[in-house]
Amino acid sequence: MTLGWGVAEEETLTRRLQDMFDADAGRRIEVLNAGIGNYNTVRYVERFLTKLSALEPTDIVVHYFVNDAEVLEPGGGSFLLRHSQLAVMLWIAFNRLFDQGGETGLLAHYQKAYEPEAVGFLAMKLALARLADYAASKGARVYLAMTPDVHNLKSYQFGFIHRTMADLAERNGFMFVDMLSSFEGLTPEELWAMPGNPHPNSLGHKIMAEALYPVLNAVGVAAD
Q1: pLDDT at 26
Q2: Inter-CA distances, 76 with 70, 80, 91, Å
Q3: Which residues contact 109 (CB under 8 A, 6 or more apart)?
Q4: Range of the structural domain that residue 20 is part of
């Protein structure tokens, strides 16, 4: 999501945010993109704490997606899936072809993933708590930017995930930014990076940047 799969670098969320801050004369703000495709909360928090915390950011955006509470098995995955966009697209198309669950199956999947005692859900909560402890020790601000699933925004079924994450953000002292209202009513054809690939396209990244910038500008970095 944050990485910007299928989107030109200059049109990604982070580059758009950088351009917005650069337009504010006299302000020196650096926006860094730490996104890695197909990571979950456990993995991206661990990567930040072990590899990136030396950067000592003043503001941290957790760009949360509805599947970030899923359990990811250890391992590096296929070489082709790590390095070829075509391979990823073929893999997605194959799985969609043989997935008979559709939206009903997806809803059931997420309902199970967000059960209070689900392994992935508990691990996600623990990871966010670790990040909260780090932020408190450094005086850093954390924002949880909740990104909706874009398969069906006209009859959205995953509001329960947004409410759950709003509660967790509050408990951890994070600023919660719900992007659902910014996407409501749009169609997959308007937002998907390409047919069969539900990652946000350039328009999606523009919408996300415009939702985040006012919050970052007013609450966070503007105070530095």
Answers
A1: 65
A2: 17, 11, 16
A3: 101
A4: 9-223
